[in-house]
Amino acid sequence: MAYKKEIEQEIIQVSSFKVLTEVYGEIAATRMKKIRGFVLKNREFLASIESIFRDSLASYAKKLSDLVRRGKIKEGGKVTFLAHNGKVVAVLISANTGFYGEVVEETFKKFIEDFRKEDIEATIIGKVGRSLFLEQEAKRPYTYFDLPDYGYNETVLSEVIKHLVQYDEIRVYYGKYQSVVTQKPTAFSISAGTPISGAVEEPKVAYIFEPTVEKILMFFETQIFASLFDQSIRESQLAKFASRILAMDRASQNIDKRLKSLDLEKLKLSHRSLDKKQLNSLAPIYYYGK
């Protein structure tokens, strides 16, 4: 009887977990639907803006190349419009809570693999990412920020961007939504400044800059990263919600299998108990029959 009570207690507990996974899955689906349209439309827009930014850099590099060939400036180094510290930083966008499936851990793997290849600095966003980082690189310094898994904290986001724009090169690692069933670890890199070289190819697209290419690039250098980083935060949220839906669906299927197993075990136990009672009831008849 004690074993039967244990089975019944586990059935209650596992059934509670099933309710929990369904609730988590429904919340994730609702949040994913709310932000998916915006993220996907903004993804296309920012891709176009980034393309213009790259073309502008190419045009400016060509202008510097012409100045080098005419002896106006010396070759080597970079031209930038903001003060930078000459360092490279790798930024991990993770999560504050669990139950986001594989996307957070897979993104961390990509981040830590690249981080170990070079002597660069680390910035971690999210408690899960910080825990993973401390497990593997406890002695390495890092900068930590806490952004919500859902919603928007403009104050903290501004602090993150202010911290990152001081670096010469910024590499951001985050999960990217491909479809409801596919989310992939992704990285983008943005570097400050334009190399000074005498050997530069002609730009693929010719632009007329108004007022000047320098002022256009100054605007881009101060604004493009903020826009791209904001998008990567939203991309990460979308990927995490899609990943959670899959994780909760798999968990629900495993729970169903466990419940079936427990129900079968309970039924077998009931049959064994009934058989035992029947044997006990037949025992006196057999005894007196002798």
What does this structure look like?
This protein is of the alpha/beta class and 290 residues long. It folds into two domains: 2-20 and 248-289; 65-242, ATP synthase, F1 complex, gamma subunit (Pyruvate Kinase, Chain: A, domain 1). Helices cover 62% and strands 13% of the residues. The protein has five helices and seven strands. It has helices at residues 2-69, 103-115, 127-136, 154-164, 213-289, and strands spanning 78-79, 88-93, 121-125, 143-145, 169-179, 182-191, 194-195. The strands form two sheets. A five-stranded mixed beta sheet has the order 4-3-2-5-6, with helices on both faces. Helix 2 links the parallel strand 2 and strand 3 (121-125). Helix 1 (2-69) runs antiparallel to helix 5 and helix 2 (103-115) crosses helix 3 (127-136). The mean pLDDT is 83.
CATH topology of the largest domain: Pyruvate Kinase, Chain: A, domain 1
Task: Write the CATH architecture name of the largest domain.
Answer: 3-Layer(aba) Sandwich
End-to-end Cα distance:
32 Å
- Helix/strand-derived category reads alpha/beta
Strand residue content: 5-15%
Tally of discrete structural domains? 2
CATH superfamily of the largest domain: ATP synthase, F1 complex, gamma subunit
Largest sheet: 5 strands, mixed
Number of contiguous helices: 5
- Tell the overall outline: elongated
Taking pLDDT < 50 over at least 5 consecutive residues as the criterion, the unreliable ranges are none
Q: Order of strands side by side in the largest beta sheet?
A: 4-3-2-5-6
Helix percentage? 55-70%
- The averaged pLDDT comes out at 83
Quaternary organisation: single chain
Element pattern in H and E: HEEHEHEHEEEH
CATH class of the largest domain: Alpha Beta
Beta strand count: 7
Q: Compute the CA-based radius of gyration.
A: 30 Å
InterPro entries: ATP_synth_F1_ATPase_gsu, ATP_synth_F1_gsu
Keywords: ATP synthesis, CF(1), Hydrogen ion transport, Ion transport, Membrane, Transport
Family: Belongs to the ATPase gamma chain family.
Pfam family, one: ATP-synt
